[in-house]
Amino acid sequence: MNTRTPDAGSGGVRQRILDTALRDFHESGFHAATVRNIAKHAGCSAANVYNHFENKDEILVEILRSASDEQFTATRNAVRRASPTPPARWAAAVRAHALYTATNSRECLVANTELRYLQEVDRKRVVGSRDAQEHQFVMLAEAGVSSGDFRIDRVHTAVTAVLSMCAGIALWFRADGPLTAVQVADTYAGYALSLVGFPGGSGAAPVDAEAADMLS
Amino acid sequence: MNTRTPDAGSGGVRQRILDTALRDFHESGFHAATVRNIAKHAGCSAANVYNHFENKDEILVEILRSASDEQFTATRNAVRRASPTPPARWAAAVRAHALYTATNSRECLVANTELRYLQEVDRKRVVGSRDAQEHQFVMLAEAGVSSGDFRIDRVHTAVTAVLSMCAGIALWFRADGPLTAVQVADTYAGYALSLVGFPGGSGAAPVDAEAADMLS
């Protein structure tokens, strides 16, 4: 059926379905969204949607998993590029994570609000990817505690607090607001340094040229 | 109609409708919940629900507004009881706010996920109450900056970060988990002190008897 529009191949239709489904999930929630409407908004038939995805749940899993994987990769790459000290690596990770949230707020918002509606098996497929992200932050925080740079009693609790703080960005950040995504990311990196007891975190967040690169 | 069950007066039915609606909104989301099911779960008729609320939106508004008002009051009272220094007042506010979130996680979760489905007018009725909470925190943070205790460039951004961090508690806190609600509240008060650049916040959060009182 896709051959009717030769320019947009199967991959094009698939991506268009994902994009419109994300918009529908974001605007009216997973429960209210229907495959029929997603198909209509994507300019294809419901049968066409079912060629690519087993059901609505499968579309949500794909959206959430790929967003989480992208965020994980952005964070890992930022850590690799950072100076090899625990505070620099921790700040780079938070900055990249926050920047992804600010620039992909719909995906992050849907992840935070709609994940709970997935069945257990599907939820685990998404949660696995999110757990990997959390583990990454836990290791970075533990390195800071070991080096004596960070002063926190409960590493997991602190990491959860920082990731919650970053997740909140999706709720309020606007591209046309007073702060750019990079400024928000830098500010949050400073907060995360302060939160773990690293002196001079807040108010002294380094504005970093590398953060701007990550937007591209 | 309520006179059929003389023990549970009109107030009793109304509260039962609110309680079951909260459970339904939490479990399946605002869109999927129906007045018919809410009535069934509350053990009354749909007509009975409409005696108390104009529609499903009105029920959600009532749940969210009263939760926000309760949280505001708990926070204000904690601030009044705290030592009159900016760091003590800031910590007391965050502790009370976090404690309310941990002990009323369903209300807070529904507020974070379902608020966006309300119509503009209804949303404003809820948001007004939430704005009052934010304003309370902004004033406390500004007092800390003025006294030289806090070191932050952007008070509003810092307050948003702290409130997002606290909102996240509703997502993960379990009453049967490793930390009690009071321990979480104390830990988060410490994080919030550190975040605004007050020395010795994290890892030195005071365990406070007054926080336990607020649970009652």
Automatic annotation (TrEMBL), chains A, B:
Protein origin, superkingdom: Bacteria
What's one Pfam family the UniProt record gives for this protein?
A: TetR_C_24
DNA-binding region coordinates: 34-53
Question: Which PROSITE patterns does the record cross-reference, listed alphabetically?
Answer: HTH_TETR_2
- Any idea where the HTH tetR-type domain is? 11-71
UniProt entry keywords in alphabetical sequence = DNA-binding
Q: Which Gene3D superfamilies match?
A: Tetracycline Repressor, domain 2
Entry keyword annotation includes Coiled coil: no
Record-linked PANTHER family:
HTH-TYPE TRANSCRIPTIONAL REGULATOR RUTR, TRANSCRIPTIONAL REPRESSOR MCE3R
Its name, as the record gives it, is TetR/AcrR family transcriptional regulator
